[in-house]
């Protein structure tokens, strides 16, 4: 009888126990502050993760929250080293039975790239949710607190499992691969131009309507657990009357890969194409992406990619094309295999 009561007590506790969420803070506007509520000039990364959590006391009603400070920077200063540190820490935490989900606070400038990097390197089905803010913590109508509450709500929702890394911003849930920052200042800046949001979160009420289909997390082949650096991959932006000299500079200064942000369907200025073909001949991988903002760059479209030795980014944004190429180069230098990765991930 005593054993039965113990079992029942444990079952009752488990049934009503709140989930455990770790908030990893990296800085950004969500951790920024200004001199007044209407001051548009502010400093990113001025408040700590503990202050962020304290600003949303309602979190304790839905989850057991712990916080860790990974970095405290404006996300325009994000580095490969911080990406590797963050990925390793998330993987460590998600192996623990007492961690049910992770929320990462992040600046909005590079949030989408960090989300995609984690989407390709996290080895767990448990929810990982990135969140930021477009208005700093001292701003009138700051959007950070509700965004954080919603992000934690997404992280503890059972339907968030196995959907890859997610971004929760402005009442929407986006897949890491698809989301892009589309406006410099608007609170609804994060959109998924090619697919749309996969769900919504309204004051903690989570609903899903779609699910990512490209490979991610546990189905990804990329493992950064033993890496301390990533290959140098650079981005160049195409335009009319292009000056191709920057390509020559990259060829001579250690670039292992170049993402060309082309015109239209990834089109290249003739001089640029010639130098990019030279880069390929020297072993540098060249990926054609587009500056348009949505749509895919088609293989062998206006450019004969197979002849030139180019790779196409499919419909990945240039920033995410760079992320994938860096990781691809940790696995292979085979152009055909890397091209298949752009169609897989």
UniProtKB/TrEMBL annotation:
Pfam families: Asparaginase, Asparaginase_C. GO terms for biological process: asparagine metabolic process. Substrate binds at residues 75, 108-109. PROSITE patterns: ASN_GLN_ASE_1, ASN_GLN_ASE_2, ASN_GLN_ASE_3. InterPro entries: AsnASE_II (IPR004550), Asp/glu_Ase-like_sf (IPR036152), Asparaginase/glutaminase-like (IPR006034), Asparaginase/glutaminase_AS1 (IPR020827), Asparaginase/glutaminase_AS2 (IPR027475), Asparaginase_C (IPR040919), L-asparaginase_C (IPR027473), L-asparaginase_N (IPR027474). Residues 1-17 form the signal peptide. GO terms for molecular function: asparaginase activity. Keywords: Hydrolase, Signal. Residues 20-212 form the L-asparaginase N-terminal domain. The active site is at 29 (o-isoaspartyl threonine intermediate), 29, 108. Belongs to the asparaginase 1 family. This is L-asparagine amidohydrolase. It comes from Candidatus Campylobacter infans.
């Amino acid at each position: 009888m005593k054993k039965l009561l113990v079992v029942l007590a444990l079952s009752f506790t488990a049934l009503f126990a709140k989930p455990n969420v770790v908030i990893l803070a990296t800085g950004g506007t969500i951790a920024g502050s200004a001199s007044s509520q209407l001051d548009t000039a502010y400093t990113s990364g001025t408040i700590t993760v503990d202050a962020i959590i304290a600003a949303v006391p309602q979190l304790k009603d839905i989850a057991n929250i712990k916080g860790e400070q990974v970095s405290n920077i404006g996300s325009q200063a994000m580095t490969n080293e911080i990406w590797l540190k963050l990925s390793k820490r998330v993987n460590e935490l998600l192996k623990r039975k007492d961690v049910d989900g992770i929320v990462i606070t992040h600046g909005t400038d590079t949030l989408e790239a960090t989300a995609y990097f984690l989407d390709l390197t996290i080895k767990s089905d448990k929810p990982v949710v990135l969140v930021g803010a477009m208005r700093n913590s001292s701003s009138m109508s700051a959007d950070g607190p509700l965004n954080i509450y919603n992000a934690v709500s997404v992280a503890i929702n059972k339907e968030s499992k196995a959907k890859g890394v997610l971004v929760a911003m402005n009442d929407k849930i986006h897949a890491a691969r698809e989301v892009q920052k589309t406006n410099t200042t608007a609170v609804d800046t994060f959109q998924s131009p090619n697919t749309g949001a996969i769900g919504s979160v309204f004051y903690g009420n989570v609903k899903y309507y779609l699910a990512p289909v490209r490979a991610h997390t546990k189905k990804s082949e990329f493992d950064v657990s033993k890496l301390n650096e990533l290959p140098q991959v650079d981005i160049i932006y195409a335009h009319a009357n292009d000056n191709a000299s920057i390509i020559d500079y990259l060829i001579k200064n250690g670039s292992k890969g170049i993402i060309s942000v082309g015109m239209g369907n990834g089109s290249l200025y003739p001089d640029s194409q010639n130098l990019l073909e030279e880069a390929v001949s020297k072993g540098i991988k060249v990926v054609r992406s587009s500056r348009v903002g949505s749509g895919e760059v088609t293989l062998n479209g206006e450019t004969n990619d197979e002849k030139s030795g180019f790779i196409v980014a499919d419909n990945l944004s240039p920033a995410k094309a760079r992320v994938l190429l860096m990781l691809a180069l940790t696995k292979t230098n085979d152009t055909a295999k890397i091209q298949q990765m752009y169609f897989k991930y």
